[in-house]
């Protein structure tokens, strides 16, 4: 009985962690099972007990998938491997999507010209506003050019930006 409760608690924890990751880090969202999968007794209705049972089954399956050595426990290495695998899947999906959107010649590869064209399409309508704003912020004496000192200050501020999570005092990007 203790073992069953422990496994259920761990499985629930993994489910909660996975759903939290999905909300916060754009991780894989847990898929809603089909009605037929939830209707365990096939009576044409789904009860809270059936939903809870399906959630426990899904959590147990995720646990078993993460428990790569099959010892019934998750090591830090197994948990990291699970998260890394999910991260790699998300990255592969993003890259595939980017290639699909930019691959104008249909060869499944991105050439420099295709990336340049895609960047141009993104910049359309924005003009040089971003670059001009950045330049204006660093041109302390408003003379239309950067002195060596202003440039050094800009470099320092840009380097320090990463240390604050790329956000200024008011929480906005580029707000220095």
From TrEMBL:
The keyword Magnesium does not apply. Residues 1-22 form the signal peptide. Keywords: Metal-binding, Repeat, Signal. One of its GO terms (molecular function) is calcium ion binding. Transmembrane segments: none annotated. Residues 117-176 are annotated as: Disordered. PANTHER family: 45 KDA CALCIUM-BINDING PROTEIN, RETICULOCALBIN. Residues 121-140, 156-176 have a biased composition (Basic and acidic residues). It comes from the Bacteria. It holds the Pfam family EF-hand_5. InterPro entries: EF-hand-dom_pair, EF_Hand_1_Ca_BS, EF_hand_dom. This is EF hand. Coiled coil: none annotated.
């Amino acid at each position: 009985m203790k073992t069953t409760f422990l496994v259920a608690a761990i499985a629930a924890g993994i489910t909660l962690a996975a759903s939290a990751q999905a909300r916060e880090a754009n991780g894989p969202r847990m898929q809603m099972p089909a009605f037929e999968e939830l209707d365990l007794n096939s009576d044409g209705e789904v009860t809270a007990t059936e939903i809870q049972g399906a959630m426990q089954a899904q959590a147990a399956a995720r646990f078993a998938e993460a428990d790569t050595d099959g010892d019934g426990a998750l090591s830090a290495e197994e948990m990291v491997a699970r998260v890394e695998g999910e991260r790699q899947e998300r990255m592969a999906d993003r890259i595939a999507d980017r290639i699909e959107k930019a691959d104008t010649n249909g060869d499944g590869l991105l050439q420099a010209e295709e990336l340049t064209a895609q960047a141009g399409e993104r910049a359309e309508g924005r003009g040089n506003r971003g670059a001009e704003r950045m330049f204006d912020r660093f041109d302390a004496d408003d003379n239309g050019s950067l002195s060596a000192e202003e440039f050094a200050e800009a470099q320092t501020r840009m380097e320090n930006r990463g240390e604050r999570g790329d956000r200024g005092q008011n929480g906005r990007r580029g707000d220095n």
